[in-house]
Amino acid sequence: MIKSLQKPESQAPAGGVIEFSDDTFVVDAALIGELLHLPATSVPMLMRKGKITSVCERGTGEDEGEFRLTFFHRNRRARLITDSAGRLIRRSAIDFGDHAMPGALQRAAG
């Protein structure tokens, strides 16, 4: 589930942008928008339309207790790594520019 969290910083979820709710992640649309170069207000609509897709992976082995959330839109990939409490560990974004996104990513991005 993606929604814009309009909370003062002192009331923001653990890590400031990611929280767990009923076995799902709630990610601040502003963070996704920033990484995908989109206005936060357009993120929920683009997700509902399938224009932004996502994958959630649970870490194993040395990454046990971490989650990797990946979001795809056009030629951009945004990735968030969080611990089991929802604290943001790392974030990154890749812009594939004019090049087609690699095949595996195209399938994930629809």
How would you portray this structure in words?
This protein has helices spanning 29-36, 43-48, 103-109, and strands spanning 2-3, 18-21, 24-28, 52-58, 66-73, 76-83, 88-95. It is built from three helices and seven strands, in the order E-E-E-H-H-E-E-E-E-H. It has a four-stranded antiparallel β-sheet. The protein has one domain (2-109). It is of the alpha+beta class and 110 residues long. It starts with a strand and ends with a helix. The model is unreliable at 1-15 (pLDDT under 50).
Extended strand count: 7
pLDDT under 50 segments (min length 5)?
1-15
- Can you summarize the main beta sheet? 4 strands, antiparallel
Distance between the termini: 18 Å
Strand order of the largest sheet: 4-5-6-7
The percentage helix is 10-25%
What portion of residues belong to β-strands?
35-45%
Principal-axes geometry comes out as globular
Structural class: alpha+beta
Mean pLDDT: 80
Calculate Rg over CA atoms: 14 Å
